[in-house]
């Protein structure tokens, strides 16, 4: 999608601090981290929310979580724990309408989230 920041990162048009990438997904550090570790995992195709993924493209969901698994192991987050977040729409505060999984770690988290 033309004006999507994350599509621009995928195309290499704007820089990102990448921690992992494969043919389907990309993981990079959040520009405004909310925890000592704050990594975003995105897929290369543009959808704003998981409900928009067509039935014949639902491999995207396991591909995203496969990358999450690789990243939390690679970054050594498993022992202390981590939180995964996916926002969609206004009430969630979603800023970038391209599906992304936040990986947050490195501090104690509150529940419920604000
Ligand atoms: P959300 O509110 O769930 O849409 O989260 C969007 C996230 O993208 C926020 O945590 C932003 O800090 C982050 N973000 C926005 N632009 C960039 C960028 N160019 N590089 C890395 N992270 C970004």
Write up what this structure looks like.
There is one protein chain. The protein is an alpha+beta fold and 114 residues long. The chain is 18% helix and 23% strand. The protein has a single domain (5-105), classed as HIT family, subunit A, CATH 3.30.428. The protein has helices spanning 5-10, 60-74; strands at 18-21, 25-29, 37-43, 82-85, 100-105. The longest helix is centred in the middle third of the chain and has 15 residues, at 60-74. The model has no long low-confidence stretch (mean pLDDT 97). Adenosine monophosphate binds next to loops.
Helices and strands in order:
Layout: H1 5-10, E1 18-21, E2 25-29, E3 37-43, H2 60-74, E4 82-85, E5 100-105
Antiparallel strand pairs: 1-2, 2-3, 3-5, 4-5
Overall number of domains: 1
Give the strand order of the largest sheet, numbering strands 1, 2, ... along the chain: 1-2-3-5-4
Biggest β-sheet description: 5 strands, antiparallel
CATH level 1 name:
Alpha Beta
CA-to-CA gap between the ends?
30 Å
Q: By CATH's scheme, which homologous superfamily applies?
A: HIT-like
Which stretches of 5+ consecutive residues score pLDDT under 50? Answer: none
The run of helices and strands is HEEEHEE
Helix content: 10-25%
| Average pLDDT | 97
* Counted beta strands: 5
Molecules bound to protein? adenosine monophosphate
Number of H/I helices: 2
Primary descriptors:
5 strands, binds adenosine monophosphate, 18% helix, HIT family, subunit A, 5-stranded antiparallel β-sheet, single chain, 23% strand, alpha+beta, 2 helices, 114 residues
């Amino acid at each position: 999608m033309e004006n999507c920041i994350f599509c621009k990162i995928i195309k290499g048009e704007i820089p990102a601090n990448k921690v992992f990438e494969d043919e389907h997904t990309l993981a990079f550090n959040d520009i405004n981290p909310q925890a000592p570790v704050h990594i975003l995992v995105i897929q290369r195709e543009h959808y704003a929310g998981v409900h928009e993924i067509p039935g014949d493209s639902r491999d995207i969901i396991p591909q995203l979580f496969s990358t999450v698994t690789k990243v939390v192991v690679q970054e050594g987050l498993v022992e202390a724990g981590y939180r995964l977040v996916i926002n969609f729409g206004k009430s969630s505060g979603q800023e970038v309408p391209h599906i992304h999984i936040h990986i947050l770690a490195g501090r104690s988290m509150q529940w419920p989230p604000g």
